[in-house]
Records
---
Amino acid sequence: MPALVAPSILSADFTDLNGAISMVNKSEADWFHLDVMDGVFVPNISFGFPVIKAIAGKAKKPLDVHLMIVNPDKYVEEFKKAGASILSVHIEACTHLHRTIQNIKHLGMKAGVAINPHTPVSLLEDIITNIDMVCLMSVNPGFGGQKFIEHTFNKVLRLKELIMETSSKAKIEVDGGVDLDNALPLIRAGADVLVAGNTVFTSPNPSETIKFLKDPL
Ligand code: DX5
Ligand code: ZN
């Protein structure tokens, strides 16, 4: 089954966001992946509400918003208003994760939980049936264009087992360092959604690259 592909706008040319948005709109991509960084949870600052609202105004596909911020609860409603369809928060940033997930769902968004490379999949045991997606970080969050951490394959397999055991409907999203070589093994291991920034936006033909990532056979 083909994967869902979510190009990460972080790697787009910010002087031509319009071009990036229309490329994604016309391509076989499924979602826009938007990385929000606060300079506290991660050592980088990306973009916030004005940019997300501008993208939402032109995007013809759902916005998959990945929050790399402390205190995400404070802003959940604002992200809904800005146009997010799927909102992922980091397990490492949430003291009351269950409540945060309830808030996200109550506002009519799909709820995702992102986990850093060092965070074990087992920490999701008691939340997996409440969420729509797990965003497995395959790099340390903060920057596009980093090298894929191979151990992620073990985590995809373990997460798939957990999802099957609990009959959870959660999708597995892999985020960071996804490229033309690891896309197929990731899908075979159980990944449902591939995020790709650098691989898409440095490609001479981004829509062909998206097409390949969806079904890399
Ligand atoms: C990393 C972000 C990723 C990143 C992916 O902190 O969460 O979404 O933009 O970019 P690539 O595909 O270039 O690793
Ligand atoms: Zn991301």
Note: The mean pLDDT is 98.
---
Amino acid sequence: MKNNKRPNSRRIISVGQIVGWLAIFALAVLLFNKQGPKQAELDYSDFKNKVAAAEVSDLTVAPGVISGMYKNQDGQFAPFKTVRMEDPDLVNQLSAAKIKYKAEKDNSWLGNILFNVLWIVLLIGLWWFIFLRPQRSDGKSALNFARSKAKMQDPSQQTVTFKDVAGCDEAKEELEDVIKFLKNPKKFQRLGGKLPKGVLLYGAPGTGKTLLAKAVAGEAGVAFFSASASEFVEMFVGVGAARVRDLFDQAKKNSPAIIFIDELDAVGRRRFAGIGGGHDEREQTLNQLLIELDGFESKQGIILMASTNRPDVLDPALIRPGRFDRHISVPAPDLKGREEILKVHAKKVKLGADVDLKVVAKGTPGFVGADLANVINEAAILAARADEEAVTSADMDEAIERVIAGPQKKSRIISKHEQRVIAAHECGHTIVARLTNHSDPVHKVTIIPRGQALGYTLQLPLEDKFLTSKSELLDKLCILLAGRAAEEIVFGEITSGASDDLNKTMAYARKMVVELGMSDKLGPIALPNGDDGEVFLGRDLSRHKTYSEELARTIDEEILTLIKSSYARAKEIISSHRVAFDKLVETLLAKEVVDAKEIDEILGLKPVAKEDASPKPAEQEPVKEEPKAPKAEKPEAKQAELF
Ligand code: ADP
Ligand code: ZN
């Protein structure tokens, strides 16, 4: 057994403890003062009347106040006080009435000061108690609100290496330099190597940016400090800047080291973005960060790394040469990358013989590293729950769907009629998705509720496409609207079930017209989309009115036209396959889940060969799209889609 207590550990009284005790003392004194017998406050005239009637006694006459006992309405003697007035005759009157009195020196100012000081002590104590005390739990000193909450990892505990990061070989390659430098800064410089101070990793959440940064520290065997930028932006102005300073100080003491700042955009957004967006806490923090960045030499053996999924909103000052000047993209993994990531994580669980990670990778397009880690984890939990020896392929399938749509909600009770509506709605999506030429393959359709969805059609996109054609987007609109169309055709009544579909439809249609220049009437125009993630009023105002009223009207018309024609097309596809559609609905109601193979059987289609299967190819002219750079600024991972 280990005994961690040191035998002679001395008690160290911290500032915090002193403040705490003072506060308790102050509180006690104040309470005690309040608890003295209640003194009635008499007007001076009443007091004089009582003197005349000899109804007061035991007076203490101080320069500002007279106190003592008086006879109240009940005829009882009770304490009183009154504010003293200029009254030279008072002493004579008291003597005449034979009232006992004594004088008191003026020390009320002392009392007042003491009283006020006690209040201040109490308030400080309270403040310390509320805001600062919780941070003591990490065992550091008490007054550490200006300390950064950064976590430090010793090189000795550093266990993550490049082996643990799968599938981002390009990013790893770019980081090799950084590792070489951290391993031996002096040698690196002697050989003339010039190093960036700051490395910015950008990519969608969960693609492994934090993991990569940790692995760099692990490979180089240096200390790793990590902090989330949002931690810097706290309630009190100035705290963020102080924390940044402290973080760098700590790292310098432990150099060579890596400082990793997560979610850099939380402090690093463009300044002067809004009205009055001048001197806020975030900006002070950003300024401090810039100062620190400029202030340290790479000689000191510190590399700053940061991650963001919005590199486009960062303040240009941050990404200037000499600051975060090396930008490394960490994209969502491709098929091979996904398989490798799955392999890394599958090491921790026991896989059954029927699990082929290649197949799992194929079934998870658009998944990032974090999702894949999650799939393996969920599958392992499911296997354990079912008391299985190893994770089966069925566990994997269920885990994938869990990650996409949340856990099944079999217990949700849905009426027979509603089930019919849901089935028709989903089959509408399914049949149109299957019968349009430019859509992703339908994986399955189900009316088992999961997560927020009452039922869904699952489409898995084909691998690695960087361009989306107009035909594909038109098909997508049609598929999205097909749920609503089916409801109308079958029941002559529409429901709220399509609201999410309608929102998506609107977003896609707008994007086509306004951003992608895919409207016939307007031609190849792109208007400022305004999606720079800023919510400040200033930007909105300045963006207003970059195009004419007339153009605005045409845009609206074009969006409407797109949506209406897509809806009509969806209805037409369903109506012209009504027999197969009805059969699909009945099968779905009976079995709750229908997979791709059965869908094809019911629709009388040959699997996969989509081209010859289409009813009447709605011919669209193939439209060439502006090639979007694969390294898109705003990474938009292709995801499996639910309707
Ligand atoms: P980010 O910082 O990009 O949001 P993280 O690095 O925090 O993502 O990734 C979260 C988790 O996902 C990691 O802890 C790891 O388990 C898993 N993961 C992500 N990317 C990878 C990868 N390329 N290889 C292995 N695991 C990964
Ligand atoms: Zn729907």
Note: The chain has 22 helices and 15 strands.
